[in-house]
Amino acid sequence: MGKLLRVALLCHPTVGGSGILATELGHRLADLGHEVFIISERPPFRMQDDYPRVHFCESTPVEFPLFKSPDHTLPLATRIAEVCSQYEIDVVHAHYAIPHAAAAWIARELIGLAAPPIVTTLHGTDIVYLGAMPEYRLLLQHVLEASDKVTCVSENLKQRTLALFELKKKIDVIPNFFEPKTVVRSREQIRVSLDIGDEPLAIHASNLRLIKRVDLLLAGFQSTVAEHDGKLLILAGADSSRILPEIERYSLTDRVIVIDDVYEVDDYYAASDFTVYSSEYESFCLGILEGMRHGLPSVSFDVGGIPEVVEDGETGFLVPFEDTDRLGQAIARLAQDGFLRYRMGDRAKRRAVEMFSASTVVESYLAAYRDVLA
Ligand code: GMT
Predict the structure, then answer these.
(1) Atom 4 (ligand 1): residue with closest C-alpha?
(2) Ligand 1 near 211 CB (within 6 A)
(3) Are 314 and 320 in contact (CB under 8 A)?
(4) Is the minimum distance from the CB of 208 to ligand 1 under 6 angstroms?
(5) Is the CB of 153 under 6 A from ligand 1?
(6) How far apart are CA 356 and CA 349, in angstroms?
(7) In this structure, are residues 152 and 173 in contact, taking their beta carbons and an 8 Å threshold?
(8) Of 40, 101, 145, 222, whose CB neighbour count within 10 A is largest?
(9) Tens digits of per-residue pLDDT, 68-92?
(10) Residue of 18, 136, 204 to mutate, ligand 1, most atoms within 8 A of C-beta
(11) If phi over 0 gives left and psi between -120 and 50 gives alpha, with beta otherwise, what is residue 264?
């Protein structure tokens, strides 16, 4: 084992894959003996309290009468520089380019020669949406080039990045990982709490942002609802009131269960039978991987990096984007066939363990750190 490192992780605290990944990476690095400093506005939602060697360093946005909205980036840059100097940080790892890679770059200017190297991990919308916006383009191009290393969570995101920016920098693909937590409540207990019996249960866990296209999810579910008795559980990592009228519009109130603010997802995956996603883009789709690790096959659109996670017909079904009839048919197929669910779910779990386990992926990040420190 190489030298133990002091790593500053920058991430969004809100519900979303980039924050989840960064936080879990922090926990795993700490398990290996490294010191981790998570710099964010508030503790990320999956950060565990009192975790040995994981320190939370708050960065406070500034409200000032002359500012139209609070300034987040400049106080963050200042905080990164302080933390780097105070704790002798070896590597700054920015998850999600805006504003984190930009703030890390400003911090490096503040620190000067003693500044630690910057590793930037791109997660998806930071490139696919923000990267395409003229307001960020030049800055993004600059901070990506200025990072000592850039990583992407899928080959698809790498190609999207290279198509948008003229980068001399090489991009490494390091996929996401997921390790389940111990299930606390049994499948039966969860099902009783949801007031359901043993009917097939599809699960969708997300922050319900527009990109998740919950409208298409409901349309797909509704299209074959007469063919099976399955239910759909939506774990909302954001205010679900926006989607409730839509559920009514599709006459699905007795078939769709929505729960807000679920942070411990494992019990719900363990009580479910397959995952369903209908996003218009996903660089990876951590939710599908979370389900796979619990032995759940998936149904989703064939977009972005999802085909790198899901083997179509083997561990899940991929259908063309916006084809809600095919989405519904795939849902019905899994809902009606317990043996198929079991067979595909078993393969999905094996694939998750083989390709997307913490041990392999955390080692790849450590190799990236060592590379920039060499
Ligand atoms: O919506 C989210 O979950 C946040 C979002 C993002 O842009 O940060 O997640 C992205 O990062 C996750 C972790 O790498 C990926 O699993 C998601 O696919 C990706 N989301 C998109 O690309 C839309």
Answers:
(1) 16
(2) yes
(3) no
(4) no
(5) yes
(6) 10
(7) yes
(8) 101
(9) 999 999 999 999 999 999 999 999 9
(10) 18
(11) beta
Sorted by where each begins, the domain ranges of the chain are 6-177+357-373, 187-355
Measured in Å, residue 121 CA sits from the centre of ligand 1 at: 12
187-355, CATH topology level: Rossmann fold (3.40.50)
Measured from the Cα of 176, ligand 1's closest atom is 14
Closest listed residue to residue 369, CA positions, set 44, 8, 23: 8
Over residues 345-356, the pLDDT tens digits come to 999 999 999 999
Mean pLDDT within 260-270: 90
Per-residue tokens: 268? 């719900």
Q: How far apart are CA 18 and CA 14, in angstroms?
A: 9
Q: Is 173 close to ligand 1, i.e. is its CB under 6 Å away? A: no
Question: Among 129, 235, 275, 286, which is best to mutate for testing ligand 1, by the most ligand atoms less than 8 A from CB?
Answer: 286
Dist CA 25 CA 358 (whole Å): 8
List the CATH code of the domain at 6-177+357-373. 3.40.50.2000
Distance 122 CA to ligand 1 centre (A): 9
